[in-house]
């Protein structure tokens, strides 16, 4: 299984040089995205490679002023994920940069209808918003993962945290056994 491979810094370097996202890099390396993220977090050499990678920056123009989203975020105090969300939902530049942060905020000039469904990045399925737990501080008002994946992920996180004293490789074996056990139980239903 790919996830047991040790991550060579040369391989990560290749991904970084090609400007791959975490997801694409994980695919390229044959690792799970969460495993790759963890490996990068836990190894200072890998972390340095990853942080130094060249990134393409999204920009936004308003009142003939073009800035990177990071800089707009600093200037307006609106978090970058919120700016991103507003752009993706077809807000006009003025509302993107001036509307107060919160669930009630909206843009009357938007070109896209208000979404009634979203894609869960875990099961890669587009589901109605009601299939996602409510989460007030997020711009969609909903969690990123669907209810099903959310509970699966938190159960796995609990297993990991209950076994945090074990060495990482052993802990991951315990997690895999837990997942396997779930699959078997579900099959028996
Ligand atoms: Zn607007
Ligand atoms: Zn899901």
Reading the helices and strands in chain order gives HHHHEEHHHEEEEHH
- Beta content: 5-15%
Number of helices: 9
- Please count the beta strands (DSSP E, at least 2 residues each): 6
Average pLDDT metric: 87
* Spatial order of the strands forming the largest sheet: 1-2
> Based on CA inertia axes, which overall geometry fits?
globular
Give the low-pLDDT segments: none
Give the class from helix and strand content and strand pairing.
Answer: alpha+beta
Straight-line N-to-C gap: 27 Å
The main sheet comes to:
2 strands, antiparallel
Radius of gyration: 20 Å
List the helices and strands and how they pair.
Layout: H1 9-17, H2 22-29, H3 33-42, H4 44-51, E1 59-62, E2 65-68, H5 69-76, H6 80-88, H7 93-98, E3 117-120, E4 125-128, E5 132-134, E6 142-146, H8 147-162, H9 168-188
Antiparallel strand pairs: 1-2, 3-4, 5-6
Helix pairs in contact: 1-2, 1-4, 2-3, 3-4
Description:
The protein starts with 8 loop residues before the first helix and ends with a helix. The strands form three sheets. A two-stranded antiparallel ribbon has the order 1-2. Strands 3-4 form a two-stranded antiparallel sheet. The radius of gyration is 20 Å and the shape is globular. The protein has three domains: about 1-50; about 55-115, no CATH class; about 115-189, no CATH class. The chain has nine helices and six strands. The longest helix has 21 residues, at about 170-189. With about 190 residues, the protein is α+β, with helices and mostly antiparallel strands. The chain binds zinc ion (2 copies).
């Amino acid at each position: 299984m790919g996830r047991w491979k040790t991550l060579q810094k040369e391989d990560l370097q290749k991904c970084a040089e090609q400007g791959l996202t975490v997801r694409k890099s994980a695919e390229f390396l044959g690792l799970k995205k969460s495993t790759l993220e963890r490996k990068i977090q836990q190894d200072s050499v890998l972390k340095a490679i990853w942080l130094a990678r060249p990134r393409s920056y999204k920009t936004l123009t308003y009142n003939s002023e073009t800035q990177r989203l990071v800089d707009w975020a600093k200037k307006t105090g609106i978090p970058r994920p919120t700016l991103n969300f507003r752009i993706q939902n077809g807000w006009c530049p003025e509302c993107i940069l001036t509307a107060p942060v919160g669930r009630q905020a909206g843009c009357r000039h938007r070109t896209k209808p208000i979404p009634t469904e979203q894609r869960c990045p875990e099961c890669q399925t587009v589901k109605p918003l009601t299939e996602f737990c409510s989460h007030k501080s997020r711009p969609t008002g909903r969690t990123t993962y669907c209810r099903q994946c959310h509970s699966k992920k938190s159960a796995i996180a609990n297993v990991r945290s209950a076994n945090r004293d074990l060495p990482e490789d052993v802990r991951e074996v315990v997690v895999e056994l837990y997942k396997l056990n779930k699959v078997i139980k579900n099959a028996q239903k």
